[in-house]
Amino acid sequence: xxxxxxxxxxxxxxxxxxxxxxxxxxxxxxxxxxxxxxxxxxxxxxxxxxxxxxxxxxxxxxxxxxxxxxxxxxxxxxxxxxxxxxxxxxxxxxxxxxxxxxxxxxxxxxxxxxxxxxxxxxxxxxxxxxxxxxxxxxxxxxxxxxxxxxxxxxxxxxxxxxxxxxxxxxxxxxxxxxxxxxxxxxxxxxxxxxxxxxxxxxxxxxxxxxxxxxxxxxxxxxxxxxxxxxxxxxxxxxxxxxxxxxxxxxxxxxxxxxxxxxxxxxxxxxxxxxxxxxxxxxxxxxxxxxxxxxxxxxxxxxxxxxxxxxxxxxxxxxxxxxxxxxxxxxxxxxxxxxxxxxxxxxxxxxxxxxxxxxxxxxxxxxxxxxxxxxxxxxxxxxxxxxxxxxxxxxxxxxxxxxxxxxxxxxxxxxxxxxxxxxxxxxxxxxxxxxxxxxxxxxxxxxxxxxxxxxxxx
Length: 457
Prior knowledge:
- The radius of gyration is 22 Å and the shape is globular.
- The protein has helices at residues 17-28, 56-65, 102-115, 166-169, 250-261, 309-328, 334-337, 339-375, 381-389, 395-405, 409-429, 439-455; strands at 3-13, 33-36, 52-54, 75-79, 81-85, 90-94, 97-100, 119-121, 124-132, 135-143, 149-159, 188-198, 208-212, 222-227, 232-240, 267-278, 287-288, 291-293.
- The strands form 3 sheets. Strands 1, 2, 8, 9, 10, 11, 17 and 18 form an 8-stranded mixed sheet that branches. A 7-stranded mixed sheet has the order 6-5-13-14-15-12-16. Strands 3-7-4 form a 3-stranded antiparallel sheet.
- It is built from 12 helices and 18 strands.
């Protein structure tokens, strides 16, 4: 077997948002960066997803890197509201963001990465990591154009290879014991989505994202409606692979729910496809000697909204920055890269732990329970915000809400449990270790508590 070998400062595997921003950041800071992707050059960045992105992430990379916010034909709609809806009720939780054309926006970011010196290699199918002792030293690929095996060696390898996390999962566990190398079925969500265009009348979902809990969708899954601008919508459905109904025909259920909102003859399908995403708290440790991971590959997806685009952009910035700092300090070891973990926890990791508890709560109260607390006005928009932030609900307010919840008091106890849980998450995440030396002790405290607390719902 003939190997073609290249060496660089930073190797980025995967050209999604995490990969492109990692590459842009490291190249802009003066490093020789190679970015690989399995797709052709014109298809890099094109992915089936919900297309929504929280405002915080584009703002971060604008402030830190000078990259413009999504604009022009990159934006399908501006988001001002995220709405949770049941069969009979709805509540606004939060908003502020964009629905973007993933391909157009991604291409602009890729071109900007190229403009600062990133070398892009398309058609490169990542096969495995390259290891020397307890260091990651690069990755091996199959070039789909010439069918040759190629190795790219680097001082730092950044795995942005998506939900399959090809590089991380091929690392030998005995040499990298602090890294998780697997993902469980209950940590994966399967989904199906379509982009539709209405033929005559415009829709009523502008500037909004709707997460709809419908009795046709296996719980705790939901159906979504995202505005894509005039006449166009991103519609989809999803639930966990561990769901007892995982064998149900997702497209059939999607059609049944969709046709409750839109008649088949009233729209045309512009795009359709399925995909899977991680829906759990992020990797608490995403680094080892010569290695970082970001985006879906590091489980950087909000467990409640399933939005991974924004966290991927943020993680990409922090990964590229930390890789360069570690190289310039002489040795990109676990310790030299550790700050990346702290940055991710502060930027979105703590929030994602809270939203996973929120998602577990909604799964526990089920659609009928959520419909009940909204219909009786037991919980308000402000209550949802306070609970999700860990602020909680005052004792006097809680007593009044319990009275309003009569006779279904247990529903309020579950939301009270959520408030206590989010507060505990905040407390434990503030204790996140500053070095790898304290990681095992912290991890053995947080994860058993968090897992047990989720099951208690």
